[in-house]
Amino acid sequence: MDRRIVAVATELGNVRAQLEARGFLVVDLDGTDLKQVDAVVVSGASDNLTGIQNVETQAPVIDAAGRSAAEVAEDVAERIELR
């Protein structure tokens, strides 16, 4: 099975570590072709969803604001499973 690709905002290093520990391939949100990812994780503090909203993608966008890295990683895993 191919590794699932998750684009993560740069400032979310703790979320990146959790996702990598679960076997996801994590890439930086900035400069990534969102059409190629399975999920996107943003931080509520620096949401620039304008760029995301202008891209056609089937990937779920998950807001990490106010949540632990483990909660976000679990949400990513669940949302990707449902796709």
How would you describe this structure to a colleague?
The chain starts with a strand and ends with a helix. A four-stranded parallel sheet has the order 2-1-3-4, covered by helices on one side. The protein has one domain (5-82). Helix 1 packs across helix 3. Helix 2 links the parallel strand 3 (39-42) and strand 4. It has helices at 13-21, 49-53, 69-82; strands at 5-8, 25-28, 39-42, 61-63. The chain is built from three helices and four strands, in the order E-H-E-E-H-E-H. The chain is of the alpha/beta class and 83 residues long.
Labels describing this entry:
83 residues; alpha/beta; four-stranded parallel β-sheet; globular
Topology:
Blueprint: E1 5-8, H1 13-21, E2 25-28, E3 39-42, H2 49-53, E4 61-63, H3 69-82
Parallel strand pairs: 1-2, 1-3, 3-4
Helix pairs in contact: 1-3
Structural class: alpha/beta
Strand order of the largest sheet: 2-1-3-4
Total helical segments: 3
Summed over residues and divided by their number, the pLDDT gives a mean of 86
The profile of the biggest β sheet is: 4 strands, parallel
Unreliable spans are none
